[in-house]
Amino acid sequence: MTTGGTREAGLPWRVILIEDSPEDRVELRRLLLTGSDRRFLLEEAVTGAGGVAAIFAGPSLPDCVLLDYNLPDMDALQVLQALSAPNGLPVCPVVVITGGVMADVGRALLRAGAQDFVGKDWVTGPGLARAIENAAERWAMGRELHDRAAALRRAAARDALRLALSEATHESDPVAIKNQAAHLLGEHLGASRVVYAEVLIDGQLSVEAGYVNGVDEFPRQLHLDRYGTFLHEEFSAGRNLVVADVTAEPVFTEAEKARHKAAQVVSILAVPLLKGGKLVAILGVHQISRRVWAADEVALVEETAGRIWLMVERVRAEARLRESEQRLSQLITLMPSFTAVLQGPRHVFERANNPYYALVGRGPEILGKPVLEALPELAGQLFPALLDRAYRTAEPFEARGMKLLMARGPDGAFDELFVDFVYQPLMSVEGAVFGILVHGVDRTEQVRGEQALLRSQRELQALADNTPDILSRFDRGLHHVFVNAAVEKATRRPKEDFLGKTNREIGFPEDLCQLWESASRAVFNFGVDQMIDFAFNGPAGIRHYSTRLVPELGADGSVEFVLGVTSDVTERKHFERTLLEQDQRKDEFLATLAHELRNPLAPLRTGLQLLRLSQNAETAARTLQMMERQLGQMTRLIDDLLNVSRINSGKIILRLERISLNAVLEMAVEAARPLIDDAGHALTIELPDEPLWLHADPTRMAQMLANLLINSAKYTKHGGSIVLSARRQDEAVVISVTDNGLGIPLDMVTRVFDMFTQINQTLERAQGGLGIGLALVKRLAEMHGGSIEAHSDGVDMGSTFTMRFPLAEGDAPEPEPTTLASSAVPTPGRRILVVDDNVDGAETLAMLLSLSGYETRTAFDGPSALSAAAEFKPHVVFLDIGLPGMNGYEVARRICADPGLEAARLIALTGWGTEDDQRKSRDAGFDAHLTKPVEPAAVDEVLARFLGVGLE
After folding, report:
1. What is the pTM of this model?
2. 460 C-beta neighbours (distance < 10 Å), count
3. Which of 221, 630, 674, 916 is 20 to 30 A from 251, comparing alpha carbons?
4. Helices (H), 321-415
5. What domains are defined for the chain?
6. What percent of the chain is helix, strand and coil (3-state, nearest 5)?
7. Is 273 in a helix, a strand, or coil?
């Protein structure tokens, strides 16, 4: 099973959230999905056991686990224990979600293997995303460090074994050598049994030595065929026997498996030793349980088998050849991993071992040849001269990590190796040098690892020095122990000036020092990240910075250092401030626009009611219907303009019905006709012969088309031409508005539908507008399942806007008759005062009320309103808020304070209609709050509530 570290670039991070609270799961999901540009694939579990099962269930382990501290069945420490791998780390990165911040809990979690922990009450979306990313990085670094340490430990253990085996050569008894080697190998591998057996006649084995741990001794005499009929043939061919589980291997018969079981053997690693093509010995390692043997373990057993044989042969050779005992003793005593014996001043190879052959890439063919003949690539390197010096001076030469170039491959390419070695002169009884013993250790992998680590450190340093962020590390005394090059740019001081000093010693301002000290000590004390923001007056002037202080833990889990990452956020703050100012200006503009547009609607609405109450002819009735239709459309359009956020979020509600295309076009032309006629334009309308029907919102459709016609009228010079055409195209209708006006700059054609875009603001005629008309048209067209596109050949080349909508199916429904609601009859003698600085609005409302039987009076500012109220003693006062000089709030307070007017009911009639505006009116003493343009039904309702009657 793999972890997210093997994930391909660009794929989402798989995160498992273990949290029993549904609310917390929702909140954590929201924070994670909105706090970063990185994509996350979230899975959820509500119990510790369920979370552990989910972690191990997939084809790969998750990239991170978000773990609630307290779960119904387990706490976080128990879950971490369940996830713990043999290396002490959890099987994947873990971030613990806690309900509070306690240093002892945090340390316990980190010691238990968690990479980080965050608090539910303070974590943010970006903070949670960073915690996950940091946890993944820390977990990967911990695993890499553990793997490196394990590799170093294994290498050290192997070297220790080799050294111990070398020391075993001091034994003079072959059986003692075999026993000691078997014990060393068995203890090193943690084996159940190690057996060194010499091969006698016909596959008979003689076990003279061995090692056991928890199992019985192996028989001293046995035959190979007893444990496998094929073993003698395999071993004679020099092939190792590597078996993880005897019971699962089909090459063994059931009887042979039973014998292995009786001998307490489940797993086998056996290495044959051949001399002169003949099988002479076998080194076997047994395990009582299943075991998969690693390649380095096989190599080690092979090496050990060779060493045992060499040691035993050396002892036996000593018995046969007493004259060579001293030379062999010196050789075996000093033998490291690779060994060769060179004879005479020409350094002729007398012998070499397999590790040496592996080192130089040759075999025994080098024996009997001088060094430079056998290894010509050494010419030009230091080794021949060093051999000559050792031979001449009789002084040994020792080197560590020396570079060696060897042509080991079939193509003759050079390999760069690194070796530790000794040239040891061999002395005769007379004291003369007769040869050189070469022995040493191949350190190539270790040196390359160290070089890679050094390169990585240099790369990290280069990264630190080239990042725009200031990196600084502090000890517990708050001294700088590391800073990167970015600090020099910010302060124009060399980074060496910071090392070993506190911020105070450097001379930073007192308030800045206190801020850093307080936050840094909090990190040291609680092990929790801290964020600080500050301004710094440096060589570049006042700059704004944001710093994240994070703990760096020592081996004991305590905070050893604090790392600060400081970013220059001056431009960001300026940008945020600019956006805030723009947003505030936009809100102020829209609020003012709402007030200014609602005021003229009040007399229009009142005039409609006047027309209803008067005895006009049929023409007046048609006029009334047209005015009401336009007023309703205008009101809804204004509401859309005032709620840009509703437009952007797609919350406009369509009132869909089956409508005739001609009716929609008639409504649009009716709305745009006054502006077209005033500009002296010629409007041509081209309609299809057949009736076309749409399933759409009539007002929105008319709004879109009227917007296009009005734009053409505004951006076409006096006396221009505008063509409105419609045609059927398959199952859709195509509507176009074409003019010969100012056109659209070519670089703006693709942007005309963007919000707040003023497409003609740079041309000779600025027509104003909010810049949202075309954006609203595009959005409304899409909501109807249609589309819109713009075309223009450039400035002064006119423009064409083309809309496409799907046609409706079936016949049109019959129109429903409309009815007007009736009202109660007012009681004569009720007095109403109307106060508004809009004279038309005040007088028309007063006229409407008079026609309904009320006694009315008007006033147009605050002082005259107070005078009229004192004289008129009204029962109801309709009072505008935005009066000149003395506003409506002050007028209301004074009326309420007048004992003679305490029975008067105050009704705010204003264009300001937010919740805050209504609260202010209540605080000033108003009894009701109506927002312009007010529906007559609303006036009727409020009068009925306060006077018991409404409008006639």
Report:
1. 0.31
2. 10
3. 221
4. 325-334, 354-360, 371-374, 383-393
5. 4-148 (3.40.50.2300), 169-320 (3.30.450.40), 325-449 (3.30.450.20), 466-567 (3.30.450.20), 599-617+822-952 (3.40.50.2300), 647-806 (3.30.565.10)
6. 45, 25, 30
7. strand
